[in-house]
Structure formats: structure tokens, C-alpha cells
């Protein structure tokens, strides 16, 4: 059985408001819904408390919390597979994410 990639700890980086907002500027990739990429990049790079602040900025900017990846899966569907994602799941659900 293959092990699933899980959330890794982020150590040593300071996340002020400008740093958190900078994750909204993820470059667009062809063939992938941009809002999904933005969420994934922020999730992989932030602790939960910073991610919560980020998601508020994400929603305020009019981004889609239910964007899908190239396989048609929402961000919430993907992170539910990760063992340490409970706080992130709560954040996106509170922001309007659905399964």
C-alpha cells in the first residue's frame, strides 16, 4: 500500500498580512482552475492560523472556494485524505466549501 502525502510542518517563516496575501498571486497554469492552485499553494505553505486569514482574503477577493483540480476534485475532497488536515477542513467548510 502506498503512503499518502500529508501536510508537512512549516518552520521559521514569518507570515505577516502582506505575506499571507501574497499567496493570492500564484501564477496561473494551463488546464487547471486557478483558484484551486491558489488554495493548494497556500495550504502547503501555511500553518492553519495563517491559512484561516488567507481564506478570508481569498473569499473577499471573489475567488471560488469550490474550485476543482484537473481530476474534477474540490480542494476539500483532496485535503480530507490527509491525516493532519482537520483544522484546514474546518476553515474551508466555514468559508463555504462543500464536498
Provide structural commentary.
It contains 5 helices and no strands. It has 99 residues and is mainly alpha-helical. The chain has one domain. The relative contact order is 0.19. The model has no long low-confidence stretch (mean pLDDT 89).
Poorly predicted runs of 5 or more residues: none
Radius of gyration: 13 Å
Indicate how many domains the architecture comprises. Answer: 1
Q: Which descriptor suits the 3D outline?
A: globular
Q: What is the string of helix and strand elements? A: HHHHH
The largest sheet is: none
Q: Strand pairing plus helix content: what structural class? A: mainly alpha
Portion in beta strands? under 5%
Provide mean pLDDT, rounded. Answer: 89
Give the helix tally.
Answer: 5
Helix content: 40-55%
Number of strands: 0
Terminal CA distance = 25 Å
Based on the model shown, name its key terms.
99 residues; mainly alpha; globular
Brief characterization of the structure:
This protein has helices spanning 17-22, 34-45, 48-60, 75-79, 86-94. It has 99 residues and is mainly α.
Amino acid at each position: 500500500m502506498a503512503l499518502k502525502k500529508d501536510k508537512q510542518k512549516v518552520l521559521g517563516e514569518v507570515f505577516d498580512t502582506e505575506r499571507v496575501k501574497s499567496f493570492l498571486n500564484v501564477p496561473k497554469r494551463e488546464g487547471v482552475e486557478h483558484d484551486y492552485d491558489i488554495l493548494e499553494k497556500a495550504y502547503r505553505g501555511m500553518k492553519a492560523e495563517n491559512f484561516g486569514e488567507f481564506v478570508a482574503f481569498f473569499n473577499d477577493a471573489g475567488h471560488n472556494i469550490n474550485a476543482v483540480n484537473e481530476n474534477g476534485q474540490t480542494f476539500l475532497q483532496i485535503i480530507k485524505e490527509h491525516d493532519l488536515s482537520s483544522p484546514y477542513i474546518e476553515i474551508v467548510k466555514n468559508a463555504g466549501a462543500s464536498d
